[in-house]
TrEMBL record:
Catalyzes the aldol condensation of dihydroxyacetone phosphate (DHAP or glycerone-phosphate) with glyceraldehyde 3-phosphate (G3P) to form fructose 1,6-bisphosphate (FBP) in gluconeogenesis and the reverse reaction in glycolysis. It comes from Notoacmeibacter marinus. This is Fructose-1,6-bisphosphate aldolase. Signal peptide: none annotated. It catalyses: beta-D-fructose 1,6-bisphosphate = D-glyceraldehyde 3-phosphate + dihydroxyacetone phosphate. Pathway: Carbohydrate biosynthesis; Calvin cycle; Carbohydrate degradation; glycolysis; D-glyceraldehyde 3-phosphate and glycerone phosphate from D-glucose: step 4/4. It comes from the Bacteria.
Length: 329
């Protein structure tokens, strides 16, 4: 069955585990993730971007795929979430299409790149949360700007590239403001800026020690105990996947992501939803590259895609196990 984000994360909070939220754009990613969830006995968050809804799969297709997955895997609860909506239309249309949760990211304006004022964020998020709650759907808000604490550059919000240099404290969500924001908007989950950024190119050097602003996470969690913290930009960009891609014709410059141990530390301090897209893309496309090079006579697309699915399933199983999601399906 499909469940709301609130239902799933209330349960996760009660039992102290984290839930990865994987972005999908097609049936095969959905099947690979659900195979992993079945093996691990894990609940699942599948999320789709606006680009996927509007110009790749389409709403009818994404919702049909996820409903079919729910029928095929009756033991694994699934939340279908709209990732990064920047206005009322994006969120309400997702819910009316069958999503059980949506992100109203009012930290940016409707264009998805211009930083928004706090007042705009509160106003639009409160309005969308009120509408969503009429239907039983959940809303995730965002407070703060995701960027790199290493460089002080604002990260790629929504993959589209937000504005220039920011101060460190602008990059971290303020705990007092978080409590005020949650009280004013009634969001079920809150995405916070705590040291991560979107995409494959998060850090230019191997992170030594602490990546996440743990004291910030703790303070925010303490101030909003009934609202679930979300960490975007949580791909680890593992070396083995960079190597897989680069050994088979790819050309990805060396980069570093968020180590899985850091995410585990975040979960211990209150993070519940962990957004992962880049790692899934790397696993699937890397394995397809390898298959293509190793099987030059093969021209059956299923064989390529199955190779990609197997690598994705391995990655997803690892995250379910390490985040503590396994065994809670
Ligand atoms: O943060 C959102 C996604 O990682 C971007 O995905 O390329 O489908 O817009 P997209
Ligand atoms: P990554 O680019 O680190 O996978 O982050 C994805 C994300 O936050 C989607 O909302
Ligand atoms: Na989201
Ligand atoms: Zn995100």
């Amino acid at each position: 069955p499909l469940i709301s984000l609130r239902q799933l994360l209330d349960y996760a909070a009660e039992h102290g585990f984290g839930v990865p939220a994987f972005n999908i754009s097609n049936m095969e990613q959905g099947l690979a993730i659900m195979n992993a969830a079945k093996v691990c006995d894990a609940p699942v968050i599948l999320q789709a971007s606006l680009n996927v809804r509007r110009s790749y799969a389409g709403d009818r297709m994404i919702v049909a795929i996820v409903n079919a997955l729910a029928d095929m895997y009756p033991e694994n609860p699934i939340c279908l979430h709209q990732d990064h909506g920047h206005n009322e239309q994006a969120c309400v249309s997702a819910i009316s299409a069958g999503f059980t949760s949506a992100m109203m990211d009012g930290s940016l304006m409707s264009d998805g790149r211009t930083p928004a004022s706090y007042a705009h964020n509160v106003d639009i998020t409160a309005r969308v949360a009120r509408i969503a709650h009429w239907t039983g759907a959940s809303i995730e808000g965002e407070l703060g700007v995701l960027g790199s604490l290493e460089t002080g550059e604002a990260g790629e919000e929504d993959g589209s590239g937000a504005a220039g240099k920011l101060d460190f404290d602008q990059l971290l969500t303020d705990p007092c403001q978080a409590a005020e924001f949650v009280a004013a908007t009634k969001v079920d989950a809150l995405a916070i800026a705590c040291g991560t950024s979107h995409g494959a190119y998060k850090f230019k050097r191997e992170p030594d020690g602490d990546i996440l602003a743990i004291s910030q996470i703790e303070a925010i969690h303490h101030g909003v105990p009934n609202t679930h913290l979300v960490m975007h930009g949580s791909s680890s960009v593992p070396q083995y996947l960079q190597d897989l891609i680069n050994a088979h014709g790819g050309e990805m410059p060396q980069t570093w992501g968020v180590p899985v141990e850091e995410i585990e530390r975040g979960i211990r301090h209150g993070v519940r939803k962990v957004n992962i897209d880049t790692d899934c893309r790397m696993a699937m496309s890397g394995a397809m590259r390898r298959f293509a090079l190793e099987n030059p006579a093969n021209f059956d697309p299923r064989a390529f895609i199955l190779a990609g699915m197997a690598e994705l399933e391995t990655l997803v199983r690892d995250r379910f196990e390490r985040f503590g999601t396994a065994g809670h399906g």
